[in-house]
Specification:
Layout: E1 32-36, E2 41-50, E3 53-59, E4 64-69, E5 74-79
């Protein structure tokens, strides 16, 4: 079941490895680590992906804040999908 609003807990403490290719659309409603083409990187919780725009919640280090950006700025993303052995 998808929740509305930001996640109720912080993102994982470990940064996942950067993949060689990825798609933000596969990460909707999952903790996602984002690498931008300008070198910036951050935890993100995407809730909407549209042509040229991604919106969701960005982790500031203390709390989630609503955030949107141009999807063309994305270099790669790594999302943590739930498994039967890991409870996020």
């Amino acid at each position: 079941m998808r929740q509305y609003g930001p996640p109720t807990s912080p993102p994982p403490t470990v940064i996942p490895p950067k993949p060689s290719y990825s798609y933000i659309i596969d990460c909707l409603y999952y903790y996602t680590y984002v690498w931008l083409k300008n070198g910036r990187q951050f935890w993100f919780y995407p809730t909407s992906v549209e042509h040229g725009a991604v919106t969701g919640y960005r982790w500031t280090g203390r709390y989630w804040t609503f955030y949107g950006f141009d999807s063309r700025l994305i270099d790669e993303v790594a999302c943590l999908l739930p498994t039967p052995y890991r409870n996020l």
